[in-house]
Every structure is written in structure tokens, then in C-alpha cells.
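Lab meeting, item 3. Inverse folding demo.
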């Protein structure tokens, strides 16, 4: 799952529209839409941080650092 798919999944789980996420994060709605559609597969760190914070998830979850079944609201375990 890429960053756009994770973003969409969590946004939908939290019942947030693109507009609401944009307002919460300070990231333009058009940019969020492009990320979601895979038109911006590389997202800058500041943008990713704002999105993760607005969604209440860790940056490592948004970036795909660990598996789906793990809790996105907790930091990844260090191996």
C-alpha cells in the first residue's frame, strides 16, 4: 500500500472529507487529492508530517514503515 492509499484509508476511517483534512493539516486540497491518486508519489517531509498530525497517526505508518495489521496510532517497534 502506498502513501496515497494509506492517506485515503485513514481519512475515510475518520470520516474526513478532503476539504476537512486540508483545513486540519494546512495542506492544499488539490495536493492531497494528487497524493491520494498517486500523481505525487513522493511527498515532502513537512507535508507528510502535517498530514500525519492532522490524522492522528504516526509518520512511519503513513510512510509504510510497518504492516497494516499493526496499530497506526503507535510507533513502530525497533528491531
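The presenter then showed the designed sequence:
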Amino acid at each position: 500500500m502506498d502513501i496515497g492509499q494509506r492517506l485515503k484509508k485513514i481519512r475515510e476511517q475518520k470520516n474526513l472529507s478532503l476539504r476537512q483534512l486540508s483545513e486540519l493539516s494546512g495542506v492544499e486540497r488539490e495536493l492531497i487529492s494528487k497524493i491520494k491518486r498517486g500523481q505525487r508519489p513522493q511527498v515532502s517531509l513537512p507535508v507528510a508530517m502535517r498530514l500525519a498530525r492532522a490524522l492522528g497517526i504516526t509518520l512511519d505508518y503513513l510512510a509504510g514503515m510497518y504492516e497494516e495489521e499493526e496499530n497506526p496510532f503507535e510507533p513502530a517497534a525497533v528491531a
